[in-house]
Amino acid sequence: MDEDGYSFRKIMGDAEFVRKTLIVLGLAVLALLLWKLADVALLAFAAVLVAIILHAFADVLARYLRVPERWSLAAASLLIFGLFVVLAILFGTQIRSQFANVAEQLPVAIDSISRNFGFGSVTDNLNDMLSDIPAGGIASRLAGIGGTILGGLTNAVLVIVAGVYIAASPNTYLQGAIKLFPVRHHERVESSLRASGEALRLWLISQLIAMTCVGVLSTLAYWWIGLPSPYALGLIAGLADFIPFLGPFLGAATAVLIAFTMSGETALWTILAALVIQQIEGNVIQPLVTKNLIATPPALALFAILIGSVLFGTLGLIVGFPLAVVVFVLVKKLYVRETLGEPTTIPGEDKAKQGEAQISRRPPPSASP
After folding, report:
1. Alpha helix (H) ranges present in 65-134?
2. I need a surface site. Which of 71, 182, 242, 317 has the fewest CB within 10 A?
3. First-to-last CA distance in the chain?
4. Furthest-apart CA pair in the chain: how many Å?
5. pLDDT digits over 90-120, tens only?
6. Cα–Cα dist 143/145, whole Å
7. Would you give the distance in Å from CA 323 to the centre of its chain?
8. Residue 149: pLDDT over 50
9. Which of 336, 50, 338, 106 is nearest to 228 (CA)?
10. In this predicted model, what pLDDT tens digit does every residue of 169-196 receive, in sequence order?
């Protein structure tokens, strides 16, 4: 009997060991798969950002313009698309020519600065490097650049289309994500995801407002200074401002480089204008538009952007801060509050609860006869 009991315990112990080993191997395979599909996951997250933007515009139309809720999303999508079409018709040719002008002057500006520091002409060195490459090598590199641009455009279209699909039926994807967790955790997961989505919505709205203000101020400043192509330079500054901390410097770099080709005085005025605009954004615009936003520690956010760029390249640089917002909300809610028991405020949580209450109060769809 004892021998049978020992054998039974040994078999059960071996089975438990095998089960734990399989679990560890499964987690390792899952981690490897997620790492390999990291770019796809980032594109999916970017599509979620697009969906949040569409829903934010739809909420504005439904609340202030009394557009029926079922039509607000379609109206918001058409309105945004129509706005881009109108801007393309009115300013498309001018902005395209100004971007071409910037592309022509940028190498000249880089060469001028490089000579001033005693490094010689960058473009001449580049031409020497290209002359040493066989014709087939140049063709393959150009093909690689073209493939990269085409891939970027394809990813952009994919993100927009997927964002529209997610915005059309957000609860379907939300409930699908919730069902990946055990039933006892459904309520916690749902409240956490809704709070994260609301925090992202607040950040995106504030960031779009800040980008618009920076783009307009930069355009006016560069036009007043007398820089060529002020519309294109202002658009670059506004779009780059989507990336916190690093974006303002990246957006101003092109204008400063071109200003150096004109005169030292123009370059100083351009640097001063960029610094003033950054101060206005940091001390006036951001405090007004982000008063309900999560206060992410600046150093943590900066390292999140750098980590995203190192691990995932350009796409990680762009979505690094929004990912940091989501992670920060989840850590505050699931770990600081619910695990450690420390009281902490989570921006957007109240509105997320209001949204859950509104959904729960909606009458169920009537059955067809």
Report:
1. 69-116, 122-131
2. 182
3. 66
4. 97
5. 666 666 776 677 767 777 666 666 666 655 5
6. 5
7. 8
8. yes
9. 106
10. 888 888 888 888 888 888 888 888 888 8
**Distances in whole angstroms, Cα of residue 162 to Cα of each of 205, 305, 336, 367:** 20, 24, 33, 30
Angle at 257 between CA 307 and CA 156, to 5 degrees: 45
Residue with tokens 């909606």: 362
Nearest to 51, CA basis, from 176, 166, 145, 128: 166
For residues 24 and 18, what is the distance between their CA atoms, to the nearest angstrom? 10
Instruction: Give the torsion sign (CA, 67, 349, 327, 240).
Output: positive
Length of the chain: 369
Structure confidence by residue, pLDDT tens digits, 275-321:
999 888 888 887 777 665 556 677 777 888 888 888 888 888 888 88
> Which class for 224: exposed (0-12), middle (13-18), buried (19 or more C-beta within 10 A)?
exposed
- Token pair in block for residue 172: 């379907």
Tokens of 293: 């936003």
**pTM of the entire predicted model:** 0.72
| Separation of alpha carbons 268 and 43, rounded Å | 39
> Structure tokens of 71?
């039509």
DSSP 10: H
Residue 220 identity? L
| Residues 268, 108: Cα–Cα separation, whole Å | 18
Question: Which of 254-275 are b and which e, b meaning 16 or more Cβ less than 10 Å from the residue's Cβ?
Answer: bbbbbbbbbeeebbebbeebbe
Q: Which of 173, 190, 172 is nearest to 181 (CA)?
A: 190
Which of 48, 258, 44, 317 lies closest to 155 in space, CA to CA?
Answer: 44
Torsion of CA 46, 162, 175, 320, to 10 degrees: 0
Query: Residue ranges per domain, the chain?
Result: 38-357
